[in-house]
Each structure stands twice: as C-alpha cells, then as structure tokens.
Specification:
290 residues, mainly alpha, globular
Length: 290
C-alpha cells in the first residue's frame, strides 16, 4: 500500500472519530459544564451549519491552492481546534471552536478522496479511495466506542487530547509526504450548483437530506435516550460499538445489494428499516430495567 494513502486514512480516521464521538461525549460535557443535555447539543448546531455552508465556500476560495497544502493545513487546523477544546473552560467557547473545527474537517474530507484518486496508479483509484474510507469506517467501529469508554472513565477532554496528537502527526506527514503540484477544482459556486439541474439529482438530494435529518438526532442524543430508559451510562460504548458494526457491514454490502435489487428498491427498503428502528427508540424508555 502506498504509505501516503495510510496518512490520508489516518487523518480521515481522526476527523470521523471526532464527528461520531460527540454522541458519546454529550452526557460528560453536560455534567462538566453544568448544563442540560439539550444545551450540550448546541455543539452540533454550529458544527452542522459550518460543515454544510462553510465547507463549499472554502472549497471555492481554496480551489487554486495545492491539495497538499489544503490537506495538511486543514488537518493542522483540526488539531488546533481540538487542543482548544481540551483547554476551553466555558461552553459558548466550546461551541465556537467546534464550529471552526467543522470547516477544517469538511475541507479535509472533501479534498482527501480526490487526492487519493489522483496519486493512485492507473486502474487502482477505487482501491485508493476505499483505503481512505476504511479509515472513516474504522473510526465508527473502533474510535467512537473507545472514546465513549474513555469519556465515561476518565473524562471527555482526554479524547480531544488524543485527537490533537493524532491530527498533528497526520498533518505533518501529509505536508512532508504528499507530492506538490496537485491543484484543486477551480469551478465557481455557480458552476458547482448547476449540477442540480441534472435529472434525478434534486430528488436524490432531498431524499438524502430527509434521511439524515431523521436519523442523526437520535444518534446524537442516544446518551439521553439511555438515561431516560434508566440504562447505566457504562452501556453507551457497547451501543456505539453495535452502531459501528452496523455501519461497517452496510458500507461493505450496500453496493452489492444495490446491484442486486436496484437503487430504488434498496433505498426504499433502507428507509423502511430506518423508520422501524426509530419506532423502536420510542419503546426503549418503556422497557423495564432490573
């Protein structure tokens, strides 16, 4: 394996761990800052808005900058933000820092896949991209539940200290190892938005947004759901591990299922399963706990 892909995968692992770990950290952040679980969820509001709106704008601004510098500096920015979260004493500052962190994480993710394909040998682009996405999958499977366990036993700030070290190492490696001269996409925002005119893109986008909006809140506040059900917080890492296993299995099988059943049936069935799972969440507080 090209060692440069390893560092891209590590950086992807770090960003995906931070993004997924927040569900396991909200209870600890709530207690540490003396706020409610709902207030703690504000760390997701700025993050979501910055990721959705700020990342495309930054991509346009940095279109003429080499990918090597964009990747290295966005990962370094993530390291700085996570270090500030370790040191931040007040909750509003935590929200502000994580908002900036979202732009760094989104900029890296949007650039990493294209860079992996660019440095891959001919005929191996798919494998190169898969190596990077495997870093994200491992984050969901290993990084997130492990981080939840660390938060439950030692405090949530230790997670961000570890992420700071990993992100800084990945940033330095990317800057030293990636080749120079890989330029980004210089299209304007208008040119990027014109793709929405293509048949099927609009409905697919709306479906994806609704899918994410319905599933993400439950995933983020899974700790609150467990508290409401009277389940001990020590069980949260196991719940997140189960979620990670499901995510990895889905990423490995989704393409084959779509090829077998077709895209429309696959999406319809997955939405039906998601609806059933969300309905089960409503019953969890009613389950007796010994």
């Amino acid at each position: 394996m090209d060692s440069r892909l390893f560092w891209l995968a590590l950086a992807a692992f770090v960003g995906a761990t931070e993004g997924g770990l927040i569900a396991g950290l909200l209870p600890s952040i709530s207690e540490d800052m003396g706020i409610t679980m709902g207030q703690a969820g504000l760390v997701m509001v700025g993050y979501a808005l910055a990721y959705a709106i700020g990342t495309p704008l930054v991509a346009v601004v940095l279109g003429g900058v080499g990918r090597r510098r964009v990747l290295a500096w966005s990962e370094f920015g993530l390291a700085v933000c996570t270090l500030l979260m370790v040191l931040m004493p007040v909750f509003p500052g935590l929200v502000a820092v994580r908002t900036v962190l979202a732009v760094c994480a989104g900029t890296f993710t949007g650039t990493a896949m294209a860079t992996a394909a660019m440095i891959a040998p001919p005929g191996q682009r798919g494998r190169a991209i898969q190596i990077v996405t495997m870093g994200q999958s491992l984050a969901v499977l290993v990084g997130v539940p492990l981080g939840a366990w660390v938060a439950a036993h030692y405090g949530w700030r230790w997670n961000y200290a570890a992420i700071t070290v990993c992100a800084a190492a990945a940033s330095l490696a990317l800057y030293l190892r990636l080749p120079r001269g890989m330029m980004g996409d210089t299209q304007t925002m208008g040119a990027r938005l014109r793709v929405l005119r293509n048949p099927g893109v609009g409905p697919a986008l709306v479906t994806t947004v609704l899918y994410m909006v319905s599933g993400f809140p439950v995933g983020i506040f899974v700790g609150a759901v467990l508290d409401e059900a009277g389940i001990v917080r020590a069980a949260l890492p196991a719940v997140l591990l189960a979620s990670g296993i499901g995510a990895v299995v889905a990423s490995m099988s989704a393409g084959r299922i779509a090829d077998w059943l077709g895209n429309r049936i696959t999406v319809t069935v997955s939405l039906m399963v998601l609806t059933a799972c969300l309905a089960v969440y409503l019953l969890i507080p009613q389950v007796p706990v010994e």
